[in-house]
Model the fold of this input.
Amino acid sequence: MSETNTAAETAAPHRYTAAMAADIEARWQDVWDAEGTYAAPNPAGDLAGDPEYIARPRKFVMDMFPYPSGAGLHVGHPLGYIATDVYARHQRMTGHNVLHTLGFDAFGLPAEQYAVQTGTHPRVSTEANIVNMKAQLRRLGLGHDKRRSFATIDPDYYKWTQWIFVQIFNSWYDEAARKARPIAELVEQFESGRRPVPGGRAWSELSAVERSDILGEYRLAYASDAPVNWCPGLGTVLANEEVTADGRSERGNFPVFKAKLRQWNMRITAYADRLLEDLDELDWPDAIKLQQRNWIGRSEGARVDFPIDGEQITVFTTRQDTLFGATYMVLAPEHPLVEKFVPDAWPEGTHDVWTGGHATPAEAVDAYRKQAAAKSDVERQAEAKDKTGVFTGAYAVNPASGERVPVFIADYVLMGYGTGAIMAVPAHDTRDFAFARAFELPMRCVVEPSDGRDADPASWDDAFVSHEAKIVNSANDEISLNGLGVAEAKAAITEWLRNKGIGEGTVNFRLRDWLFSRQRYWGEPFPIVYDEDGVAHALPESMLPLELPEVDDYAPRTFDPDDRHTQPETPLSRNEDWVNVELDLGDGAGLRRYRRETNTMPNWAGSCWYELRYLDPHNDSQLVDPEIERYWMGPREGAPHGGVDLYVGGAEHAVLHLLYARFWSKVLYDLGHVSSAEPFHKLFNQGMIQAYVYRNSRGFPVPAAEVEERDGKFFFEGEQVKRELGKMGKSLKNAVTPDEICAEYGADTLRLYEMAMGPLDVSRPWDTRAVVGQYRLLQRLWRNVVDETTGQVTVVDAEPDEDTLRALHKAIDGVGQDMEGLRFNTAIAKITELNNHLTKAGGPVPRSVAERLVLLIAPLAPHIAEELWHRLGHSSSVVHQDFPVADPAYVVDETVTCVVQIKGKIKARLEVSPSVSDEELEKLALGEPAVVAALGGAGIRKVIVRAPKLVNIVPA
Done:
């Protein structure tokens, strides 16, 4: 501390300083905890409270789950937490019962990797991280209901994660009813014959394995052998969303390969239509809705069957109107039908360019499959100059033209989209055009060009693609599309296909089922066991939670990152005593030997339903009490699907957490466990707090706190360094912890600064030097109420003057609106303006004004507000006081400034009444001496009046 500051504080011992702030903040945090100030009562259960308080309108405010990192928080992390806290506090003060709390999303890879490196059990390090993070968050004065907090690693919590998995496993999606139903109802339909059994046999004739296989085709949670993203460097498989655009793992940047493994999946695709439709009713940013729509990727088209050697290749196309123009087919290299029709030798007349230089079709297909398997889906779909592929040696038949068309495999067709096969219409598809040119394949024009080119594709430089042209060259003995527009042709050919039994109109989605298995230790164990026949059985609720066993080695077996020919080996599989068990599942089969599932759930599982646990956190007998769930999350006016009132978090979760949570919510809704079909009604994406990164000549970051600025240049240890704006983080050596700022200025200053930096949804750079501005605001506020020398309250019981009343009520009106709209930066500006008005006015502040100023700032700076509120003579907490209400008479200005323009240039300014009419304002403007002089006697062609602020005069 400088000598100047020491002298100032000696002269003013009751000045608001960092030391005083620390004392005030710690003291009131203890009081709030002791008195349960932020406890939100439930209408039922062990958290039930005052019925009169529960009768208030309720508000459920949530933040996205934090992960308890060992590095702790930097000042960028609390941005959203502070914002929701400010909003929640304002809602309490406007008469709401507010539920606001925070838990921890604590399973996942970071803790496991730390365990692998150090031998520390993931629970030990994770719980230590939670303790540290809780302390940091508490210091910020966040008004959380601590009775409701939990971590996803708590067995009492993941018991219900496992229970939900069992509900999903024991459910199927009834397309006719458009909802999930218990699997027992499907079994009953098979048993009674109301639903035919696939294969035509009676249900009673099937073995347990056969029944299991059939039900697996319907269950919403199912295990299957399917192409997955296998990452040898991590020793686990990854969901599509966890693979980067260049085909590497999001975590660790290891190469990812396609492999066929038996994995658990969630049939989220069954809900694709509902996930799309219900977006319309959600109060979400348009950008997030668009990302979800694009990820789900709904497209309308037709299924078409192409006969081939006694089989058929089914394609999905959105341009069935061009079917007559299909001159070849392309299958994904992994397509299961490929092996069935690859001949022993090349057919006569096979072009050399089709064979890839191989002696037989089998050799060509095998070599190409290996080549394609080494690429990611993103790489395969990237636009490349050189198109690759190989002829299978087989021909299919175009069902419309009757022509034989060669069948290729190529990596630009993915098994995960549509049917894994396409009909290629090279004249009217750019990618097919390039492939056809590379392999010297025929093209047929079936969409009449409207850009001046002739009808022979041989002379074209690229395909002609149009959705508005006429169809040509498209007729057979049964149907003609010639002369029809695209829409008419689509309808006609679709009807023809349906009547022939070789196709039908259908809808396709880009969305794939959710890969739900991870080859990790630190995750929720699956509540699944397998009998001696390999049939999966769900554990009964009485056996939940199934807790993680102790293991000696936490690491999955990892491999050479470039070796795709490997298989996962999970940590749980090495614990034989846990894996192999004898159980009585209560299904009448008695005590039997079983083998446990040794994969674990992905880290997304725990965050798919955590909003429900906040409602009823200690309920051990059911997921959530229905009355409590309806109270906090049920459908209501403006939110027909229910959900959390405000959910704040980063936009990076648009197609991971948010989509998964919506899916789980809908399944639980369909099964009658909840009344809300959507988890989050209103979503708000906060921006990011960025920081300057300083790099030396080798490009490495240097400690930002040790960089000196001289003449607009930056130096570290005498060397000039380059400055750039980037993320804040330990690795970039530019992290600033909230603890540092709290120690230097106090938590209220940090809260104010983060909220004042700019609009909440916009990223902004951190500048420690600017924090002092909000510190000074609080010091001026303190001086307006407390004498810095004596510590006595200085307010007086006198009526405020007219100017002060107007400043006060304008602030009340503006701050209230800004709080509702999450515009905290402008709310702070209005509070600052009022506070400055009182400072400039001089003399003691009227009590009525001081008290309302304290109430205005209470949501933003709760500690100093609580302290001043009590010093002003109140015994109850400021947290539950009524937010001030503006008097409309003082909100409207006595006069406003009207600008008078001639030819767009300002010639005069008039002070007029806000209620002045257009006629009065025009008369005043034309009579203004400066305007008369500017016109110089010229006539007037037009006068445009926008009362009360603008008059625009257009001379003749």
User: Anything to note?
Assistant: The chain is about 35% helix and 20% strand.
